[in-house]
Design a protein that fits this description.
about 400 residues, alpha/beta, 17 strands
C-alpha cells in the first residue's frame, strides 16, 4: 500500500493567504453588497507597461511563423534575458556575476521553495521571525524540522531569529550556527531594510562558519536609501556563500505572467560539489522555466522605456506606502516599513491579537490585511498592510482604518 510524506502533516492548517481568502469569501457571501478593500496579499494592481505588451505581442507573432517558432527553451533561460539581467542588475552595480550564473524560472516563489532540494536533510535551517511562510513550510515538507510546538509558536529543530521593535526588525547573528540562513531584504512582512555594512557581517559570518545564505531580493526595486544594497553580491566574499533569488512580479507587474531568476555563483561549493552544477542539474530534471514570450517580456523590462515605466510604477506604490504610513502615525498608530519596501508593519491597537484585528477590520470597516502571527510568533501583535492597491483604494482604506 502506498504511503504519504508524513512531513506534510506537520504543517499547521492551510496556507496563510488561503485562510485569509476563505475568511473574505465567507464575509462576502454573507454581505454581498460590501465594498471590501484588499490590502492583504502582495499582488500588484497597475497594468503592464506598453513596451512589455509590445514585446509579448511580437513574441506571439514570431511563434506563429516557421522561422520564429520555438519549442522547449534552454533549461537555464534564454541568453538574451540572462545577459540583460547580468548587465543591468549586477554588472552595472559592480557585482561580479556572469550571465551563465543566472537561472531563469517561472517565479521567485518557486525558486525559494525549490532551492532547498539541493541541500541535505540534516542541514540546520535559520529563518527570521516573522518570516515569509514559504521558507519554513518547504523545509518542513522536506523533513528538516521536528513537530510544530504550539507553546513556542514554531517548529522544533528550526533556528528562529527574532525580528522585533527592539532590534529594528533586523536579526542578530545566531549563536547556534546554522547551515542554511534565509534572509529577505527589503523584508516581507516588516518592510525593514539592511545597510551594507550590516549585510557584510552576515556574509563574513557565513564564510567563517561554512554556511549558505539564501537571499530573497524580490523587493530590491523599492529601495530608496543609498546605503541599502540591492544585491548581496555588493558585499565582499558573497560569491562563496550566497544564493540570490529575484522576481519580476513586484517590480514589473508580472504576477500574472510569472518570471523570476536565481543566481548561484560558480565559486559556491560544498564538500567539493558545485552548487551551481547541482542547481543546473535540477533545472534540467525538474524544469520550471518561463515561456519564450514571457522571457521576451522580461527583456523589455530592461529597455530604456521599460526602466522608465518600472520606476514610475515603483513610485506609484511607494506613494501609497507613504500615505498609509504617515496617515496611520497621524492617527496615533505605531507603524514601520514603507520606506524601502511596499509593506507597512502596523502595531495592533488596544492589545488586540493580529487575527482579532483582522476580523475587526474586515467586519467593521471592510478592509483586509495580513495578520502578523501568520508570519511567525514574533509577528503577533502586528499587522501587514500592502501598498499594492490602487491609489483610490489606498486613500479610502486609510480613512476607514483611522476610524479605529
Amino acid at each position: 500500500m502506498f504511503t504519504i510524506n508524513e512531513n506534510y502533516l506537520k504543517l499547521q492548517g492551510s496556507y496563510l493567504f488561503s485562510t485569509i481568502a476563505k475568511k473574505v469569501a465567507a464575509y462576502k457571501e454573507a454581505n454581498p453588497e460590501a465594498d471590501v478593500i484588499r490590502l492583504g496579499i502582495g499582488d500588484v494592481t497597475q497594468p503592464l507597461a506598453p513596451v512589455i505588451i509590445e514585446a509579448l505581442q511580437k513574441a506571439v507573432a514570431e511563434m506563429g511563423t516557421a522561422e520564429g517558432f520555438r519549442g522547449y527553451g534552454p533549461e537555464q533561460g534564454y541568453d538574451f534575458l540572462r545577459n540583460a539581467i547580468a548587465v543591468n542588475d549586477y554588472q552595472a552595480r559592480g557585482c561580479d556575476i556572469a550571465a551563465d550564473e543566472i537561472f531563469v524560472s517561472d517565479g521567485a516563489k518557486c525558486d525559494v521553495g525549490n532551492i532547498q532540494e539541493i541541500f541535505g536533510i540534516s542541514n540546520r535551517v535559520a529563518v527570521c521571525d516573522p518570516v515569509y511562510p514559504v521558507y519554513v513550510d518547504t523545509n518542513v515538507m522536506a523533513g528538516r524540522t521536528g513537530m510544530y510546538n504550539s507553546a513556542a509558536g514554531g517548529f522544533d529543530g528550526l533556528i528562529y531569529m527574532p525580528c522585533t521593535e527592539e532590534n529594528g526588525f533586523a536579526p542578530s547573528l545566531p549563536e547556534e550556527v546554522p547551515d542554511l540562513i534565509y534572509l529577505c531584504f527589503p523584508n516581507n512582512p516588516t518592510g525593514a531594510a539592511i545597510k551594507k555594512d550590516a549585510l557584510q557581517e552576515w556574509v563574513d559570518y557565513a564564510n567563517r562558519n561554512g554556511s549558505v545564505i539564501l537571499y530573497d531580493a524580490a523587493y530590491e526595486a523599492y529601495i530608496s536609501e543609498e546605503d541599502v544594497p540591492h544585491s548581496i553580491y555588493e558585499c565582499s566574499g558573497a560569491r562563496t556563500c550566497a544564493i540570490e533569488m529575484h522576481s519580476f512580479s513586484k517590480n514589473a507587474g508580472f504576477t500574472g505572467l510569472r518570471l523570476g531568476y536565481t543566481v548561484i555563483p560558480k565559486d559556491l561549493k560544498a564538500g567539493g560539489a558545485s552548487l551551481h552544477d547541482l542547481w543546473n542539474r535540477r533545472h534540467g530534471t525538474k524544469y520550471n522555466g518561463a515561456p519564450y514570450i514571457v522571457q521576451r517580456a522580461g527583456e523589455a523590462v530592461y529597455s530604456e522605456e521599460g526602466k522608465k515605466k518600472l520606476k514610475a510604477q515603483v513610485a506609484y506604490y511607494m506613494e501609497n506606502a507613504r500615505i498609509i504610513r504617515e496617515g496611520l502615525k497621524e492617527a496615533g498608530f505605531t507603524a514601520y516599513g514603507g520606506v524601502n519596501a511596499p509593506y507597512i508593519w502596523l502595531k495592533t491597537p488596544d492589545q488586540l491579537t493580529s487575527w482579532e484585528f483582522f476580523d475587526r477590520l474586515l467586519n467593521e470597516v471592510q478592509v483586509v490585511g495580513t495578520p502578523g502571527s501568520g508570519f511567525g510568533a514574533s509577528g503577533e501583535g502586528f499587522f501587514r498592510l500592502t501598498a499594492f492597491g490602487t491609489h483610490e483604494n489606498t486613500v479610502e482604506a486609510l480613512k476607514r482604518i483611522r476610524r479605529f
